[in-house]
Write a structure and sequence with these properties.
6 helices, Helix-turn-helix transcriptional regulator, single chain, 173 residues, 85% helix, Cro/C1-type_HTH, DNA binding
Length: 173
């Protein structure tokens, strides 16, 4: 099973407890992140990205790479930057669609409110209100998905900035 956080931690030669301490989380929580049982929250993800970037900067500064190594590293970072841009573009599309659904859902919610106010004891009106109430639950799920997409986009923006900094360090500027 591919576990990038575990591979990174092992490459540093540190224990789960030490990594958890670096990230300011408990060891058991870090273990769940590593096993994929819990998603990394945005602040922890940013710390992990920063830690990885710091280690890479340190490696570059400790050992002056040859021009060929610099070229390979630059190519690797540019590829990562292109992948990041692609992921951000895809997320932006999904966010746009989710915002469109959210506008539709807001209209539905207003309709539910109006129907509830004037709902009589007629069976068909009560059934309509019930079916729209189910749609409101779906709206809440859409809203949560939209917020998750926005958080992911923020993480990708942070990662993009980090990649840009690493390219500048590599180019000596």
């Amino acid at each position: 099973m591919y576990r990038p956080n575990a591979l990174f931690r092992i490459s540093l030669g540190i224990s789960q407890q030490q990594m958890a301490t670096l990230l300011n989380v408990g060891r058991s929580l870090y273990t769940m992140y590593e096993l994929g049982k819990r998603n990394l929250p945005e602040p922890v993800t940013k710390k992990l990205i920063g830690l990885k970037a710091g280690m890479e900067r340190q490696a570059i500064q400790l050992k002056k790479p040859t021009p060929l190594q610099q070229k390979q590293w630059r190519k690797h970072l540019e590829k990562k930057r292109a992948e990041n841009k692609n992921r951000r573009d895809i997320l932006a599309y999904h966010i746009s669609k989710a915002q469109d659904r959210q506008q539709m859902n807001d209209t539905r919610e207003n309709l539910v409110g109006m129907l509830k106010k004037r709902a009589s004891k007629k069976r068909h009106e009560i059934e309509t209100v019930k079916s729209i109430a189910v749609a409101v639950t779906e709206m809440q799920r859409d809203w949560m998905r939209l917020e998750e997409l926005k958080r992911t986009l923020n993480i990708l923006e942070f990662e993009r900035g980090d990649l840009e900094q690493r390219l500048k360090v590599l180019e000596g500027g």
